[in-house]
């Protein structure tokens, strides 16, 4: 794999390292995500966070809880209070304890976790309308493609700074006003990676996910990176929306499509993912269950001859990011090695990449997205389709984009915009830069 500089190792704190070794008898929580300084043009500033690797104020000794992100506003529900590390926890199997996915409990006994608010779908993954007039933009797009020649600058200007709900409104208005399909018009008027990027923007995140999944599993071979990008570490609500639209669009279940492309234990891994039974983001992290999973992971890997792949896949696919971040932290404390190193040693191929994807997303989702962008550009030749899809995916949430740009600059000591300029050209370059908030 040609990913990026050693991701899970612990560099000195000033270089953005992972976990600092706490003094004896003290416990630092895993690092907060976010707080990266760089901001794209026109983006709201990200919420300030404590220094990377430092315990947040008032939570010394407690695992930090990530707040579920709702586009453009605060979460519509109250988060449960943070459970302090080392506080008295409910016994395993009783209400209030962090536990297993629905349908039988992890470890048996019919355990059902206490109800928690479901993670809301990402913007564009649930039916929603906005009070916004898309007429001017729809007319501008038609004018840019009507007659001889195409006004590429207008296409970029209109589409590159819109959120998913605005794009949906533009696509609907375009059809209503001009009795034409916006995606088909763009496909007929543009070409190459510029076309791919514009089409991804016009479809919006959900419809584009469905199309990219179908494309990843069509023809010879399987685009495993696309499966990872679209399906892993997603909320239950997003996965259910993807599965429903895939079935509606292609008249085949997504599970059946994935089964036809994968095999053996990698197939079982993705079937666990597609069950959409991941712990919701609001589920509290409890030390007893963190310790239990740390022990389970050790017993499934280093603690036995051979590897219990399904047990590892189950834990990484059914726990939320807060819990997995705590597990990774505790694993290092207990066994003096990173969980990422264990995965690299015990697994290979697509399963290794998928497990590392889930772990890295939980550890720091912004740094992980930055690394995925770099992976599309590093080495000989640019993996253009991956770059386009990853830039567009990051672009949909401007607050997320601000943190990804900051994480990229901190990790690679250069701006994301400068890196993209070195790998692209022409209208393709201008579109990618506009998607990350640059003036073009």
TrEMBL record:
Region called Disordered, residue ranges: 1-115
Family annotation (Gene3D superfamilies): Annexin
Residue spans of biased composition, Low complexity class: 15-41, 62-91
Pfam family, one: Annexin
Alphabetically ordered keywords of this record: Annexin, Calcium, Calcium/phospholipid-binding, Repeat
This protein's record includes keyword Ribosomal protein: no
Biased composition annotated in UniProt, kind: Pro residues: 42-58
Highest taxon of the lineage: Eukaryota
Keyword Plastid: no
Biased segments, Gly residues type: 94-111
Family annotation (InterPro entries): Annexin, Annexin_repeat, Annexin_repeat_CS, Annexin_sf, ANX14
Domain notes from UniProt: A pair of annexin repeats may form one binding site for calcium and phospholipid.
Family: Belongs to the annexin family.
Database matches in PANTHER family: ANNEXIN, ANNEXIN B11
Protein name per its UniProtKB record: Annexin
